[in-house]
Design a protein that fits this description.
single chain, alpha+beta, Alpha-Beta Plaits, NADH Oxidase, 2 domains, binds flavin mononucleotide, binds iron/sulfur cluster
Length: about 280
């Protein structure tokens, strides 16, 4: 719910025109909230030149005034950063600072979500990486052992390859302590999305993950998405270990840590398939 300070409001109508829900009207040259279908998106807060609007359900103290020096990003640098980032699979045995992990979560928290439903939650793993690694490898090994060919499945060869990998990874960890799953990363952030809150739980989580990756990269950390953990995350052993409730889907996870890898250039990719319409 929004509230508008009548003393501050000058009736400029900017909030009225920027509200996607038409949930503010002008009466006697002052903005009046209707609060019928408000998404709590905060556009009215952000656009008001008088700082007259507030949203009751949020902490308004965390709002930051725009400042070109600290908000502007050069577009060429953005594109170069996207091209230059690489998945890290070689982490130093150095812990990641709690404050840095909190800022990465913050990048996820401020990522747009469909209908502004904000369905995400996060599990930050630091102290119990070992138990999570072992449990996940046990689950993946079981899944690998249960693999059966399905010639009608166009992804069958991929499934077969993964099944073979999971069994091998399990052996490497059990016999030699080599972690080919999480690469001995000192930290991991699991992104969960609540299917009872959002109609787009996977998209919302994926968008947040991408911003979080960019934030981690900008913070000087190595990052790698881990899809194998997502495959394993439906298993009850993982869900109970991490205390994940039924309505939450594990969208993806980010392995995080410092790395010695130094790249000298970007990599090539397929041409974009674009149909101009
Ligand atoms: C997956 C997704 C789907 C969205 N679909 C629509 C849409 O159909 N129409 C629309 O006006 N906004 C859409 N949005 C924008 C959200 O409503 C918006 O991100 C949210 O209200 C927060 O506002 P902000 O992006 O200005 O922070 C979508 C956002 C996401 C992430
Ligand atoms: S928070 Fe968003 S939806 Fe609600 S009144 Fe303001 S602009 Fe409109
Ligand atoms: S943007 Fe601010 S000053 Fe302008 S009408 Fe809305 S509340 Fe009033």
């Amino acid at each position: 719910m929004i509230s508008i300070n009548k003393e501050k409001c000058i009736g400029c109508e900017l909030c009225v025109h920027d509200c996607q829900c038409s949930d503010i009207k002008i009466e006697n040259e002052k903005a009046v909230p209707l609060n019928n279908v408000c998404l709590s998106c905060g556009h009215c807060v952000a656009i008001c030149p008088q700082n007259a609007v507030s949203l009751n359900e949020y902490n308004m103290q965390e709002i930051i005034d725009y400042n070109k020096d600290s908000f502007h990003i050069n577009p060429e640098n953005v594109l170069n950063a996207i091209k230059f980032r690489r998945s890290a699979r070689n982490f130093k045995n150095v812990p990641v600072e709690k404050g840095m992990l909190e800022k990465i979560v913050e990048a996820g928290r401020f990522t747009p979500s469909g209908g502004n439903r904000q369905p995400l939650s996060f599990i930050v793993v630091r102290d119990k990486m070992d138990v999570l690694t072992k449990t996940t490898l046990d689950v993946l090994n079981d899944m690998g052992c249960k693999y059966e060919p399905d010639m009608d499945d166009p992804l069958d060869s991929q499934r077969k390859r993964y099944a073979t990998m999971w069994k091998m990874m399990h052996q490497q960890y059990a016999n030699k302590g080599i972690d080919l799953l999480f690469f001995h990363a000192p930290a991991m952030i699991i992104i969960l999305s609540d299917k009872n809150i959002s109609l787009n739980p996977l998209i919302d989580g994926g968008l947040a993950a991408s911003n979080m990756q960019t934030m981690a990269d900008a913070s000087g950390l190595g990052v790698c998405f881990n899809g194998f953990f997502t495959f394993a995350s439906d298993d009850e052993k993982i869900r109970s270990l991490l205390n994940i409730s039924d309505s939450k889907i594990v969208v993806t996870s980010l392995l995080l840590g410092y790395t010695d890898n130094r790249y000298h250039r970007t990599v090539p990719r397929k041409e974009a398939e674009i149909n101009w319409f």
